[in-house]
Amino acid sequence: MGVVGCSREVADCACTALHLARPCGRPLDTPCDGFLGEKEKEKSRLSRGVNDELVAWAKTSRSAKSGAADQKATRQLEKPLIPIGGLVPQHGGLSGGSTGSSCDPLDVFELKVRPLGFGAQGEVLLATHRQSGALRACKQVSKARRRPTEEAPYATFPLNSSRRSREVEAMLRLDHPNVARLFEVFEDEANVYLIMELLSGGSVLDRLMPKSGLHPEAPASPSGKTEASSPRSLEEREAAGLFRQMLGAVLHLHGHGVVHRDLKLDHFLFAGQPQQQPTTKNKNNNHNHQETTSVKLVDFGMAKVWQVDEPLTPRVGTRQYMAPEADAGGSLCSATADRADVWSLGVALHAMLTGRFPVSVPTKPEDSSRGLEQLSPAAQDLLSQLLERQPGLRPPVAAVIHHPWLAAAAAEELSEATSFARASFSWASPPFCLQGVREAARLRRLALLAVAKELEDQDALSFSRVFRVLEAECGGPLTLQALENRRQLQSAGRHEDFPAGLVLELIQVFDIVDADGSRCIGWTELLAAMLLAAKERTLPDYACWRAFDTLSMGGPALTKASLRRACHSPRRAARPATSQTAARRLADPEDMVSEIARSGEVRREDFQGLLAGRYSESSGDAGGDWRAKLADHYGLQSEP
User: Fold this and answer.
1) Which end of the chain is more exposed for a tag (fewer CB within 10 A), N or C?
2) Alpha carbon distance 269, 205 (integer Å)
3) Whole-prediction pTM value?
4) What are 224-263's pLDDT values in tens digits?
């Protein structure tokens, strides 16, 4: 998992993320059925159309301090829906405010009134962090089953609503470059507020619509005839690279025991505006293309932590993507509950390749393959497996990701990750590229975790390929057992190269990289370790600024007191440290500063040296230029 959120009141670990944007404008308590009427379509277009306007507004008004004096005061919760504690900072809910954190997001963020979009359970607002100017998305989820009245303003709020809490429960388990990040959670008596990663590139559905001229949610007729002139929306090579990222996200979910239950093209969003740049030429003299932004899975309003012995409720999600067994009614078999997500992925891939949905109920065997004649045999074979009507015969995601149709995309990603690893890390025999993780001071590791949490997609794209390759090689989350199993499959030959060498090193330093003790190395943790080990890598100024702002709680220096406040929340699933690792884990934040600074504080001008491993205490003015540059970058007033 990972460490550190992004506000003044943060926990010591923050590993997962989510940005939700649903183009369907249905009532928040009603699951979307997948068929958009004209009003919903218009609302979707308007919501997407104001996105650029809202982002521009936030960038020009970061320094404005819109007070919350006119906002209705929130009362302290006596029984929170979301329990305090965990890997993501959670504010509000404790009687008396024993954590010292506010349950009102307006204390930390400016919120734009007009929504960016709509999730399965709430609307999404643009949020601007008051201190650092960072842009976030805030999903406001009402805890009310019906509107409160003046006579009973809180009586209608159920405090044990599983639907409202399971979204957060699912997201707390996840930390993957293709799952949008959840930064922190606020809760008051009426609502839960999820502060998430802002994704501005639109959905995969948005990319398909201008290419095909046909809305993919219009299924083909049984005759196979459509009004579109072109039967394909994406070239197979482009679709394979995109679909592999989608599979990586779902593989991570299922490995952590989470089923999404509402996978659709609308719920895969690009981190930025998708662009393509030519890389190499293949044997047919055609250009391969490399994506310059990631696609991320969003909206966990229907997600559920999957128990093997617990049947799942049917007819959950979007009808057009719903698996036959889910649409038929009756409880779903828990042993194959994850295969409903596989079906949804098959529907999405069909739409990506043909510009339309498959026939919902084929009347003849040939109807299921109608319109696929122009696809390669491998693509047709994959679609037939994903859209197998018997869930027991449908392959799991761990098998799908190794299908021959994806082999070229997998080989290309492995080649890019290998080239990046060779250029960025020092390999030897035996390898020692991660040895610095064990030797690094705990405060430096904590600082790099904070930087990794704040690093934006375009600056982490090459690192994300390394993580995806490792999870695909290990068949899911990077647990110690999965890494050991992968090591046993390696040949007795060279172990110093990628990914074999990195697997060996992660086994050796597993207890150190696993900073939160979750028994699993998440994306943020691996990214922090790679940032520490990378040769001559310059960290972006914005990430350093936000990381310092997080650990110093908005003050001029990082101190023992600020770390105690920043790390107030207990770690989930943490195991006792062994005698060998107790001194190296991030368990005692108040002692970290003493290991580094005799003065008991790390000032802003010294923070960059701490990140680079060249820390030396200054007189207080040596870093003024760096501080002013960061302040000017974010339109903030530099402190004297």
Assistant:
1) C
2) 9
3) 0.76
4) 444 443 434 689 999 999 999 999 999 999 999 999 989 9
